[in-house]
């Protein structure tokens, strides 16, 4: 969307860098877009070729990255497997071994679900406190995106060649909570596919965003992208002439380096 003709992005060449390797579960399109308001921080990021991994706690969806998934009840075979796994452990005490033998399958099932729910809640909390997220979209012409993230149509939108982001994750939209296998939860480290699906799931209300996400182990990380990664810049229809000129001067300065 641009008063200056959004159909033709400004071609850009800038400096160098390396990109973060991130989790991937679906093949991304060749180009992804990042909407930006016209602010001093976003101009500085543009000048320095930086993408920022922010805390999900600041996102406009209060449930983003904070919803605890549903834990399904384990099957009889799974309960049997867990029980035998503990009984085969030579390090457990005789008292614990006796308790395991006396515990019924229904009691064991409830214990497994309770442990999985507790661990999942801890991991979701840990993610929201420690992990950084950088958000992109498949589209550059969504009016609501310009309103929410593009400075109320007065900002700009960066176009990236996604081949420079080797691992990035597609957001899945659903009104159903993710459902986890409790056995997998109890044997899964934070950051693996099961848990990452929680942090890339949103309500259908947000489906118009067509979002993809990059993750970083540390929240607040600024990461420099390589010169070839930025392939275009689009302008909002309400961007001021002064703002447009400033952005063009930044890009011109980068092309001269």
Could you outline the blueprint of secondary structure elements for this entry?
Blueprint: E1 31-36, H1 40-48, E2 50-53, E3 70-71, H2 76-87, H3 94-102, H4 105-130, E4 132-137, H5 143-149, E5 156-161, E6 169-170, E7 172-173, E8 179-180, H6 182-185, H7 193-198, E9 201-202, E10 211-216, E11 221-224, E12 230-235, H8 241-255
Parallel strand pairs: 3-8, 7-9
Antiparallel strand pairs: 1-5, 2-11, 4-10, 5-12, 6-10
Helix pairs in contact: 2-4
Please explain how this structure is put together.
- This protein has 257 residues and is of the alpha+beta class.
- The protein has one domain.
- Helices cover 34% and strands 19% of the residues.
- It contains eight helices and twelve strands.
- The strands form five sheets. Strands 1-5-12 form a three-stranded antiparallel beta sheet. The chain has a three-stranded antiparallel beta sheet with strand order 4-10-6, with helices on one face. A two-stranded antiparallel sheet has the order 2-11.
- The longest helix has 26 residues.
- The two termini are 29 Å apart.
Derived structural class: alpha+beta
Based on CA inertia axes, which overall geometry fits? elongated
- Sheet of most strands: 3 strands, antiparallel
Helix content: 25-40%
């Amino acid at each position: 969307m641009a008063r200056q003709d959004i159909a033709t992005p400004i071609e850009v060449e800038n400096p160098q860098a390396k990109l973060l390797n991130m989790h991937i579960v679906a093949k991304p399109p060749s180009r992804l877009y990042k909407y930006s308001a016209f602010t001093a921080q976003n101009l500085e990021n543009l000048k320095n070729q930086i993408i920022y991994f922010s805390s999900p706690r600041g996102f406009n969806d209060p449930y983003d990255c904070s919803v605890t998934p549903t834990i399904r009840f384990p099957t009889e075979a799974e309960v049997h497997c867990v029980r035998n796994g503990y009984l085969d452990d030579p390090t457990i005490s005789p008292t614990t071994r006796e308790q395991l033998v006396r515990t019924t399958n229904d009691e064991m099932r409830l214990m497994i679900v309770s442990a999985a729910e507790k661990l999942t809640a801890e991991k979701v909390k840990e993610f929201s406190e420690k992990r950084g997220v950088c958000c992109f979209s498949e589209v550059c012409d969504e009016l609501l995106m310009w309103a929410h993230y593009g400075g109320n149509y007065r900002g700009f939108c960066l176009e990236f060649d996604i081949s420079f982001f080797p691992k990035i994750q597609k957001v899945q939209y659903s009104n159903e909570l993710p459902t986890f296998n409790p056995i997998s939860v109890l044997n899964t480290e934070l950051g693996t596919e099961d848990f990452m699906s929680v942090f890339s799931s949103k309500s259908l209300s947000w489906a118009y965003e067509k979002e993809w996400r990059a993750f970083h182990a540390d929240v607040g990380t600024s990461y420099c992208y390589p010169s070839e990664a930025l392939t275009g810049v689009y302008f909002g229809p309400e961007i001021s002439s002064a703002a447009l000129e400033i952005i063009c001067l930044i890009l011109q300065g980068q092309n001269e380096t």
